[in-house]
Amino acid sequence: MKKKVKKVSKKLIKSKKTHKKDISKPSKKNIQKKQVISPKILRKKKIVIGNWKENPATSEDVKNIISGVKSVVKDLKKTDIILCAPHAFISQVSSSFSKNLNKNVSVGAQDLSVKKGGSFTGEVSGTMIRSVGATYVIIGHSERRAVGETDEIVNTKLLLALQSDLKPIVCVGESVRDDQGEYLSYIKNQIKSALNGMSPKYADKIIIAYEPIWAVGSKEMQTVSPYEMHQMSIFIKKYLIEILGLAPATMVPVVYGGSVTAENAAAIVGEGEADGVLVGRESLDLIKFKQLLKNVDLVK
Ligand code: PGA
């Protein structure tokens, strides 16, 4: 297995030489350390990611969401929350949660610039995002891919995020499920190109969000069944073993997103064995979101 990981990372190093801090170069020490990690240390905590999208409208509204989330976090034993706010509110959200009292709450951004800085009006770099308190960033969300974000851009953003000490939440998902299973190779390719050039030593920094496009924002609240999620989770994890090696792959949580509600979240995480959920609309409805958090937390 050691040999295999070395071979993979060597290949990856060749394909990415442009970034200054070479995040593709795994040290021998690190690979060996990760290789002996037993699968027993697989994360026990579930992850609930709230993706606020272009909401809420004002900083006053943000205050309400924060106090609602605060009222429930102290009761959560097995759930980590990542609130992905618009850039304008990241600083407000991160300063509202105490690093000591709210250890299970982190803040994320919903995108980062494809550039490190410079004359790019309107763009926000990974370093800027990190400096105002975010530790995660969503990358390759289908709503961004829909406005022209290619697999190549997603990959550049992933590498830039890691360089900026941000943990990427990489979204992948098909637009339709065909009977021949073509969507499976589509997802494989999305993962392969998103992680191109990333050393396996960064595996513990990334989250894969499986978000079928037909389920994201669906009016009918269409989702995968828990059984389908279980299958998809196994499929993605097996592929991660192929490209990262066994021990690094076991560190990557695979979560589900797309019309997650307080009613369906527990089954997706329980029977579906997702490592968590990514919630859009319901993360802004405080009554429902609080219930969703409690339901996920109760999953054994
Ligand atoms: P939704 O959004 O929960 O509103 O479908 C999911 C997402 O942000 O991907």
Describe the protein in words.
- By secondary structure, the chain is α/β, with parallel strands linked by helices.
- It has a single domain (44-55, 79-95, 105-113, 124-298), classed as Aldolase class I (TIM Barrel), CATH 3.20.20.
- Helices cover 42% and strands 13% of the residues.
- It has helices at residues 2-15, 28-35, 59-73, 87-96, 126-131, 142-145, 151-163, 182-194, 226-244, 246-250, 265-269, 286-298, and strands at 46-51, 79-84, 105-109, 136-139, 167-172, 207-210, 254-257, 276-279.
- It has an eight-stranded parallel barrel with strand order 1-2-3-4-5-6-7-8, surrounded by five helices.
- Helix 11 links the parallel strand 7 and strand 8.
- Helix 8 crosses helix 9.
- The relative contact order is 0.16.
- It binds 2-phosphoglycolic acid (PGA).
Characteristic terms for this protein:
300 residues; alpha/beta; TIM Barrel; 12 helices; 8 strands; globular; binds 2-phosphoglycolic acid
